[in-house]
């Protein structure tokens, strides 16, 4: 049991593996030790047998829980608050994976098994470990089969009809992040100006009342949250889409108190950071992601001294904890874990979490969280039907089956419980089409549509376009050939997942894409003519952004399969297993036509275009752009040049920049209108023809937002 053999057998490293360069085995061994230690301080405090993994060894030991090892059974010490960001960063650097309160999945009770065991205490304990491990695998397998077969009996909405909804007419049609004051006489919300800059506004209800801008700071603003006494509003302010500060503003005086910085490497505009005020007014709930390798984690910000108290440590493979709300009684925090995500709830014990309970496990997404006013139920927006529409659901904090509370087929996000009987939420009406830019000609739509068409991709010869669309209800891969009257549906997935970023093979006969279902994203290959689908990876993690190599032999993709996001590749014919290549954390990349380089975007304070040598693993920074990437895939590499889609501060459009790979010169080729709202449920995308003559981009046909209220008491 040596480090090198584990690296090769478990983590698929090459025979030349060097633990000094890639310490993946030691990192995971340390995680095992931390998890075991935490278990024996908490749930396993009374276990008669201890399992240890001694430092310097990878062979487990089984010991009696007495004598020299009794200190392991002492109660866990009280959590120590972390006062400043530097302490958090030091803790992360020392231990990338930190143990957290035990996660308790909400499932049906496990029946008692009539098993008679006649053996010594040691053998008995080990048999029980094996028994429960086997039982857990059986339960997981049965759940997997149920999900794969598809439960078509989704509960119908308990709202009687859309006519029971009442629009809040006084709000602007593009208001987002709507927050109601404690007395419900005012609202704070976010609105974009003509330069695509978002700011927080406040408006009192009443005749002739108009919105007033709350602040005049530099940077985009999100997530207004009222203090319990209504005297202050906290908000997120972000200068560059990665860093942000928390600003507390006096509603009457306009005085500002700024705390920060915090970081959100997933992108502030894509996932607005967590922000909520505790009912006693002493804390703010927020999130922080100290590096791209570490998931976003929930923090309590103690207002009195600005101390930061860590609440959660999500698994290293997760995108992290991205949204959260206090319960009205202050005893719980409900939050959303993962990119699409599931719903969790933790119980607060002073300044720490005493337990974390997972309420959903199907990864159908969460867009907005609220508690009912009695703190007994959680309202959340999720896509739990086959028509890819987000609706509002209610679930008890103790777990159970989510019950819909908004009309079927009616998009509803960002729930707010105004009282025990009244629910408010935001409705989004969205439709998108493709337009083609060619020279100085007026951009023209390629084909009519009234749904969401997204993520376009030119075939190598430019005569066919692959794209993702909801034209048939759920997201599917579609194809449009020039000269055809209408697009043709290529795939017929079950409707229980999400598709991402199609990419053509160099020969034009195959298309690869990512498909997320049951909590995992895997790589698929689709025959461009017949629509036949092959699944290339079968992992339980995030395999994302697949792109063909220049000769079509391999498919490169980003994966966190071994716990750390990195670049992988797999044979396009599926005859060889996937293998990790380099340690670079990249997810937005494309191969060069000559097969030597993999171009990718690195973004922190500014956008950097870099390239990775596929032969020796060396990297080179090509240029830096004072802008941010705007799409899930903001990079296109053609025979003629490299193109990136970027947005600059205070500009109402997206720039398509062309970079010459030889002399690294830069030129703006097109400007297309930008959306003022982040849209995490869609991936608009763009593509450029191989000869650089045409640009394919999305255009909004409709993009309306309306806040509605409905009576919860009218529902059975």
Structure description:
By secondary structure, the protein is mostly beta strands. It is 9% helix and 41% strand. The protein contains 4 helices and 50 strands. The strands form 12 sheets. Strands 4, 25, 26, 27, 49 and 50 form a 6-stranded antiparallel beta sheet that branches. A hairpin with a 4-residue loop joins strand 10 and strand 11 (243-250). The chain is globular, with a radius of gyration of 26 Å.
Map the helices and strands.
Blueprint: H1 3-9, H2 24-41, E1 49-52, E2 61-64, H3 85-94, E3 103-105, H4 121-149, E4 166-167, E5 176-180, E6 186-192, E7 198-204, E8 212-213, E9 220-226, E10 232-238, E11 243-250, E12 256-263, E13 275-277, E14 283-288, E15 297-302, E16 307-310, E17 321-326, E18 332-337, E19 342-349, E20 352-358, E21 369-371, E22 377-382, E23 391-396, E24 403-404, E25 413-417, E26 422-438, E27 444-445, E28 453-458, E29 464-469, E30 476-481, E31 488-489, E32 497-504, E33 510-517, E34 520-527, E35 533-535, E36 543-548, E37 554-559, E38 566-571, E39 579-582, E40 589-591, E41 597-603, E42 607-613, E43 619-625, E44 628-629, E45 635-637, E46 642-647, E47 653-659, E48 666-673, E49 686-688, E50 694-711
Parallel strand pairs: 3-20
Antiparallel strand pairs: 1-2, 4-50, 5-6, 6-7, 7-8, 9-10, 10-11, 11-12, 13-14, 14-15, 15-16, 17-18, 18-19, 19-20, 21-22, 22-23, 23-24, 25-26, 26-27, 26-50, 28-29, 29-30, 30-31, 32-33, 33-34, 34-35, 36-37, 37-38, 38-39, 40-41, 41-42, 42-43, 44-46, 45-46, 46-47, 47-48, 49-50
């Amino acid at each position: 049991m040596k480090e090198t053999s584990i690296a090769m057998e478990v983590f698929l490293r090459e025979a030349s593996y060097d633990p000094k360069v890639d310490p993946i085995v030691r990192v995971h061994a340390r995680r095992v030790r931390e998890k075991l230690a935490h278990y024996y301080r908490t749930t396993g405090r009374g276990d008669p047998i201890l399992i240890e993994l001694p430092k310097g060894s990878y062979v487990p030991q089984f010991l009696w829980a007495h004598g020299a090892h009794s200190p392991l059974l002492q109660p866990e010490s009280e959590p120590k608050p972390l006062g400043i960001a530097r302490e958090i960063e030091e803790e992360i650097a020392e231990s990338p994976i930190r143990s957290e309160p035990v996660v308790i999945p909400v499932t049906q009770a496990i029946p008692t098994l009539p098993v008679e065991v006649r053996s010594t205490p040691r053998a008995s304990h080990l048999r029980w470990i094996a028994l429960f491990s086997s039982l857990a695998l059986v339960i997981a397998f049965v759940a997997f089969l149920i999900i794969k077969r598809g439960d078509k009996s989704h509960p119908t909405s308990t709202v009687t009809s859309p006519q029971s909804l009442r629009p809040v007419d006084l709000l602007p049609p593009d208001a987002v992040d709507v927050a109601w004051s404690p007395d419900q006489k005012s609202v704070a919300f976010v609105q974009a100006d003509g330069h695509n800059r978002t700011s927080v506004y406040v408006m009192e209800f009443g005749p002739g009342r108009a919105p007033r801008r709350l602040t005049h700071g530099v940077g985009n603003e999100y997530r207004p949250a009222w203090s319990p006494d209504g005297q202050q509003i906290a908000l997120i302010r972000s200068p560059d889409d990665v860093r942000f500060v928390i600003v507390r503003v006096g509603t009457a005086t306009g005085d500002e108190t700024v705390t920060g910085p915090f970081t959100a490497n997933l992108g502030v505009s894509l996932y607005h950071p967590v922000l909520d005020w505790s009912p006693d007014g002493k804390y703010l709930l927020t999130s922080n992601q100290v590096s791209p390798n570490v998931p976003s984690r929930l923090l309590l910000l103690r207002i009195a001294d600005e101390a930061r108290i860590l609440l959660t440590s999500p698994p290293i493979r997760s995108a992290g904890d991205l949204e959260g709300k206090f319960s009205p009684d202050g005893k719980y925090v409900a939050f959303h874990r993962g990119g699409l995500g599931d719903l969790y709830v933790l119980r607060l014990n002073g300044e720490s979490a005493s337990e974390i309970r997972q309420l959903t496990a199907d990864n159908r997404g969460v867009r907005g969280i609220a508690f009912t006013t009695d703190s007994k139920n959680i309202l959340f927006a999720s896509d739990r039907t086959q028509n890819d529409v987000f609706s509002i659901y209610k679930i008890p904090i103790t777990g159970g089956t989510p019950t819909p509370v908004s009309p079927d087929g009616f998009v509803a996000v960002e729930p707010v419980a105004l009282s025990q009987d009244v629910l408010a939420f935001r409705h989004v009406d969205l439709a998108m089409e493709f337009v083609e830019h060619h020279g100085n000609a007026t951009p023209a739509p390629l084909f009519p549509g009234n749904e969401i068409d997204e993520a376009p991709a030119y075939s190598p010869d430019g005569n066919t376009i692959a794209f993702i669309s909801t034209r048939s209800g759920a997201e599917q891969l579609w194809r449009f050939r020039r000269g055809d009257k209408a697009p043709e549906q290529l795939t017929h997935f079950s409707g229980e997942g999400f598709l991402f970023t199609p990419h053509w093979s160099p020969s034009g006969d195959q298309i690869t894409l990512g498909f997320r279902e049951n909590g995992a994203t895997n790589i698929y290959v689709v025959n461009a003519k017949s629509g036949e689908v092959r699944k290339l990876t079968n992992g339980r993690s995030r395999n994302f952004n697949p792109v063909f190599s220049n000769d079509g032999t391999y498919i490169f993709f980003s994966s966190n399969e071994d716990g750390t996001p990195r670049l992988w590749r797999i044979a396009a014919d599926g005859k060889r297993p996937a293998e990790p290549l380099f340690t670079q954390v990249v997810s937005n990349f494309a191969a060069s036509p000559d097969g030597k380089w993999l171009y990718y975007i690195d973004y922190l304070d500014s956008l950097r275009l870099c390239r990775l040598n596929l032969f020796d693993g060396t990297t080179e920074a090509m240029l830096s752009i004072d802008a941010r990437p705007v799409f899930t895939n903001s990079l296109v590499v053609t025979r003629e040049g490299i193109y990136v889609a970027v947005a600059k501060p205070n500009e109402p459009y997206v720039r398509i920049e062309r970079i010459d790979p030889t002399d690294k010169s830069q030129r703006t080729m097109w400007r297309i209108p930008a959306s003022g709202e982040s849209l995490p449920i869609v991936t608009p995308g763009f593509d450029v023809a191989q000869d650089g003559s045409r640009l394919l981009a999305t255009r909004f046909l409709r993009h309306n937002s309306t806040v509605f209220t409905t009576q919860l008491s009218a529902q059975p």
